[in-house]
Design a protein that fits this description.
- This protein is of the alpha+beta class and 298 residues long.
- The protein has one domain (9-290): Jelly Rolls.
- The protein has ten helices and eleven strands.
- It has helices at residues 8-11, 30-34, 50-53, 86-107, 127-132, 180-187, 196-204, 214-228, 230-235, 285-293; strands at residues 12-14, 38-41, 68-71, 76-78, 116-123, 157-164, 172-177, 238-243, 248-252, 258-262, 266-273.
- The chain starts with 7 loop residues before the first helix and ends in a 5-residue tail after the last helix.
- It binds fe (ii) ion.
- Fe (ii) ion (FE2) binds at residues 140, 144, 146, 253, 258.
């Protein structure tokens, strides 16, 4: 049996944008993004200096850490193996954060005043090496939607901007899955219950940074059910796509099923967006799941 197939038009909107400041002159991309599409920017590269290119080495990330990450609001930089690298990596990530901010102003202007909690990452490991050494739950080569185990979002959206900075010109390969309403209809009947007491206890024990809502519990279960379901992984509706070096893409990673299959060296920027900041809140995973549950999930 053949895997289900989606078309490029189903999952992507291509933008001619080639500048972090100027956009593409074709207006906001919010409406397609909120429908779960990946906004693909084939000409939007993030230029690195010769010195920055020397930072692209897996040895520079702390052993056992997946990524180097940076919080531009408090200057917290984690995952750097060698202290001597910290100033150059911090400067790179700070510059990348500011570029992403100007990109939002150009392509997603409606979100500017709502986005919060920025964190960006420098991803140095090849996707394949990381995959071999981890459990199925952490295996991001299985189709999934993002849900944070320790950091509940209480319905807020996870907006991510990715840029392939591979200096050898290697592509980053993703599989992209079906739209969220169809995905939710497929998995919702398999999702279990929610215990407020368990969420309270997990928070008390420091397993989570705040108390998980019913929504967070359902999204985590969906993340796990998707990754565990071999039949869905192989036969679920999906499209493979190679993001070339020097390209960028944007998606709501809590909504668009995705799997990283190949590639190395990437910059990624994350923000959270309250559902009230969306143009069409009804497309949010929160509202889709609430419609299926017939009740509020917060
Ligand atoms: Fe993911």
């Amino acid at each position: 049996m053949r895997a289900g197939v989606l078309t490029m038009e189903n999952v992507m909107r291509v933008s001619a944008c080639s500048s972090w400041q100027a956009g593409d002159g074709a207006g906001s991309k919010v409406s397609e993004l909120e429908r779960g599409k990946v906004i693909y920017l084939p000409h939007l590269a993030f230029g690195l200096s010769d010195k920055e290119i020397t930072l692209l080495d897996v040895k520079r990330v702390e052993p056992k850490r997946k990524n180097i990450s940076y919080n531009p609001q408090n200057g917290r930089l984690t995952g750097v193996a060698w202290a001597a690298d910290r100033p150059a990596i911090e400067a790179l990530l700070a510059r990348h954060y500011h570029a992403c901010k100007t990109l939002v102003a150009a392509l997603l202007p409606e979100y500017q005043r709502f986005l919060h909690s920025p964190v960006n990452t420098l991803r140095l490991h090849p996707v394949t090496v990381w995959r071999k050494s981890n459990s199925w739950r952490k295996d991001d080569s299985r189709l999934h939607v993002d849900a944070f185990p320790s950091r509940p979002v209480c319905g807020e959206r996870i907006l991510r901007i990715f840029t392939n900075i591979n200096p050898q010109g290697n592509s980053r390969e993703w599989r992209i899955g079906e739209d969220f309403p169809r995905l939710a209809q497929r998995f919702y009947p398999e999702l279990g219950g929610y215990s407020k007491f368990t969420s309270w206890l997990q928070n008390l024990l420091g397993i989570t940074k705040s108390q998980r809502s019913h929504y967070d519990a359902l999204m985590l279960q969906m993340h796990d059910k998707m990754k565990r379901d071999e039949r869905y992984q192989q036969l679920g509706l999906q499209l493979s796509f190679q993001f070339p070096a020097g390209s960028s893409w944007i998606c709501f990673s809590d909504q668009t099923p995705h799997a990283a299959m190949a590639g190395q060296f990437m910059l990624e920027q994350t923000w959270l967006l309250p559902v009230q900041g969306m143009q069409r809140p009804e497309y949010s995973p929160l509202k889709v799941l609430e419609a299926l549950a017939g009740k509020t999930l917060l």
